[in-house]
Specification:
By secondary structure, the chain is mainly beta. The protein has one helix and ten strands. The chain is 7% helix and 40% strand.
């Protein structure tokens, strides 16, 4: 699979909103104002953005997420494709540092995210993101 982005760091800041829509089909991850065109929703339930319990959800309850086993290595596109073919879910709850998962994007790409840091009581979650091109 041809990598089109990453692995690179990406931050989600919950200080102004408890639900953040992320588009992974724009060449690099982008924060969106609405779920239109978003590939995943990151949700920190308390307004004001203190990071306690963070969930990732498929937009409009779509099954687009697949957890990966813990590992220190970056996942490959093939590993993500296998995970997405076997273990799709619409929600991953209480994600924590070190957790890895894959995403099937709305335009057919495959992406991986690994939680680098999500300090309790903080507002910023740091992720390592990789995106692979469709059909590559």
């Amino acid at each position: 699979m041809k990598r089109v982005f990453g692995p690179s760091n990406f931050a989600i800041d919950f200080s102004k909103d408890s639900s953040i829509n992320v588009d992974l089909d724009a060449g690099k991850p982008m924060i969106m104002d609405s779920d239109r065109g978003a590939d995943v929703l990151a949700s920190a339930p308390s307004i004001g953005g203190t990071l306690e319990d963070i969930d990732f959800l498929g937009p409009r309850a779509a099954d687009v997420l697949a957890p990966l086993p813990s590992s220190s290595s970056d996942p490959t596109g093939a590993e993500c494709t296998r995970a997405l073919n076997r273990n799709l879910s619409e929600r991953l709850e209480d994600v924590a540092p070190g957790q890895r998962f894959c995403i099937a994007t709305g335009e057919g790409r495959t992406a991986s995210m690994q939680v680098v840091s999500a300090p309790r009581g903080g507002a910023v979650m740091k992720l390592k993101v990789t995106i692979w091109e469709q059909g590559s």
